[in-house]
Design goal:
135 residues, mainly alpha, 4 helices, flat
Length: 135
């Protein structure tokens, strides 16, 4: 006898586009869009591409400007210490929350900005122009 045992999810959500279910630590995502809905969605994404790209570019440029105005060593020290505080008492990356992941990844992103942009910080002036938390 081949019996199929249907397992009930711990949490479940469904709308016209997708179905999401959680079984303990396992999350299942199923696309429920029809081909018409998929075509409309792709068309919507294509129509908003330029605006979205410009918005992302503007935000990246603002962030690069903020980072390049800071003391690079001080900023990296601050970012690294925030990362360590965020993941304290976590045994594995799988246990990190989204906020903790953002904090950890921020250090890597700041490093990439520092090596790819010209630093405008004046090392002769004491004190910071911008607070690190703003970044």
């Amino acid at each position: 006898m081949n019996k199929k045992c249907k397992i009930q999810p711990d949490e479940y959500y469904k709308n016209e586009c997708f179905e999401l279910a959680r079984f303990g630590k396992v999350v299942s995502l199923k696309n429920t869009m029809t081909s018409e809905q998929h075509t409309q969605y792709i068309s919507l994404l294509a129509d908003n591409f330029v605006e979205t790209k410009d918005n992302i570019s503007t935000r990246i440029n603002e962030l690069c400007s903020l980072v390049s105005d800071c003391n690079p060593l001080g900023l990296l020290k601050f970012s690294a210490s925030m990362s360590f505080l965020a993941i304290a008492n976590q045994l594995s990356e799988i246990n990190y929350t989204a906020e903790q992941n953002y904090t950890v990844r921020a250090t890597e992103y700041i490093q990439s900005i520092l090596v790819s942009t010209e630093n405008k910080y004046n090392f002769d002036i004491d004190g910071e122009k911008r607070p690190f938390k703003q970044i």
